[in-house]
């Protein structure tokens, strides 16, 4: 293969970068935008690690590991009702319509 020269090599490298970076940039921004969509959050589940992320709390119905258990919580305008206590590693396999609240409280919303 003949040598194109320094300018040709730079143009090739820049072309390759745009071929990869532009679609990657678009995919990242699309995923970020989906975090504002309640339908997307219901579909993939939500893991809450900080209490400040919750909009509102319902009545306290008990305690678990020092944390209050509320009958419901509201996150991004979606109401989730208390379902059960789960192990902390459940956050790694959260399901559709579920909200995990540390230290191990699982809430569910209706579809």
Distance between the termini: 59 Å
Give the overall average pLDDT: 84
Query: Strand sequence of the main sheet, in spatial order?
Result: 1-7-8-6-5-2
- Strand tally is 8
Care to describe what's here?
With 111 residues, this protein is of the alpha+beta class. It has a domain at 38-108. 32% of the residues lie in helices and 31% in strands. The chain has helices at 6-34, 38-44; strands at residues 46-48, 56-57, 60-64, 67-70, 72-75, 78-85, 98-101, 105-108. A 6-stranded mixed sheet has the order 1-7-8-6-5-2. It has a two-stranded antiparallel ribbon with strand order 3-4. Strand 3 (60-64) and strand 4 (67-70) form a beta hairpin. The protein is elongated and about 70 Å long.
